[in-house]
Amino acid sequence: MTPAPKDVAEKLLAMELPRRWLHVQGVGRRAASIALLFDDPHERWLLKSSAVLHDIGYSPMIASTELHALDGAIYLRDIGFPQRLCALVAHHSCAQFEAELRGLAEDLSCWQDERTPVRDALWWADMTTTPDGKVTDVHARIHEIEERYGDEDVVTVFIRRARRELVAAVERTEERLRMAGLSHLAK
Question: What is the count of structural domains for the chain?
Fold first, then answer.
């Protein structure tokens, strides 16, 4: 039996990376707040679980490739989480762009980017949550990442390449919320 997603994230992040843990908790709250967008309980579980697990690859206990999305997915696969959850973590927030820059695109390719409303909702939750777990908008979040990493860092280069897709995923999710009469949950 696999452990509870939140327990895994807390074990890997809370003590070693407390600010990252704040972010992950915030992303988890954002995802949980819109989970009703999905009728299928399994889809809700995937969204909430991937939200709390998306950044575990930053943990020094499991980091090995310099691509946290890949490291997180590998770890989750190795401890028995479902393939689809691993793929959501592997591809969260346009990770393929960073994988290309780091020469890890082939490694990431064993997981498919599903391009579904669940995936978009995960990206929405991540890209509307600050490093301290507070709510923000996608443009402010991208700017914060650029500022934090600096112009020459691979993360800044990747986030600039990914900007259009990240904003589009956020906008699609917010449109789905509007269409479902749940736009108040986006705030």
Answer: 1
Write the CA distances from 130 to 19, 30, 44, 137, 142, integer angstroms: 10, 11, 22, 9, 10
Residue 117 lies in a domain: yes
Q: Rounded to the nearest 5 degrees, what angle is found at the Cα of 135, between the Cα atoms of 133 and 132?
A: 20
Q: What's the confidence (pLDDT) of residue 55? A: 98
* Domain assignment of residue 184, yes or no: no
Q: Is residue 185 one of the residues assigned to a domain? A: no
Does residue 140 fall inside a structural domain?
A: yes
Residue corresponding to tokens 């949550």: 129
**Tens digits of per-residue pLDDT, 52-74?**
999 999 999 999 999 999 999 99
Question: CATH number of the domain that 86 lies in?
Answer: 1.10.3210
State the pLDDT at residue 145: 97
Q: Which residues pair with 135 in a beta bridge?
A: 129
**pLDDT tens digits along 89-138:** 999 999 999 999 999 999 999 999 999 999 999 999 999 999 999 999 99
Distance of CA 32 to the CA centre of its chain: 13
Range of the domain at 43: 5-176
Q: How far is CA 148 from the centre of its chain?
A: 18
Count of CB atoms situated within 10 Å of the CB of 40 = 9
Of 144, 138, 39, 126, residue with least CA distance to 89:
126
Measured CA to CA, the distance from residue 148 to residue 131 in angstroms comes to 10
